[in-house]
Specification:
Elements: H1 2-15, H2 19-23, H3 38-50, H4 55-83, H5 86-94
């Protein structure tokens, strides 16, 4: 129960800024139907209530947050790939321990 309370608190804090995305949306797309496991829907509804937003706003904010996170990560990795050189990695590989790979982690 304590883990659930912590998760709810963390979820509210983490998504509080994201709900502004749903509130300030200038254009809405067509309706979509999404099937969620009952446990996920219940948790989302509880978090939405704690954040004083509708379940729809909460889900829109959560999806928006995920999209922004993935785009940010993708842009970061593309930028790093453009400036990285294989020789830059060599110094780190030389410092790796000389041990056999763990089961299931060996190249075929």
């Amino acid at each position: 129960m304590k883990a659930n309370a912590w998760l709810l608190g963390a979820g509210v804090a983490f998504l509080a800024a994201s709900t502004a995305f749903a509130r300030q949306s200038d254009r809405l797309s067509e309706h979509i139907s999404v099937q969620l496991p009952n446990s996920v829907k219940s948790a989302a509804a509880e978090l939405a209530k704690l954040d004083n937003v509708s379940l729809n706003q909460f889900i829109a904010a959560a999806v928006g947050e995920k999209v922004r996170t993935l785009r940010t990560a993708s842009e970061f990795l593309k930028g790093r790939a453009e400036i990285s050189k294989p020789k830059d990695l060599t110094k780190y590989l030389r410092g790796a321990p000389k041990v056999a790979p763990v089961d299931g982690d060996k190249l075929k």
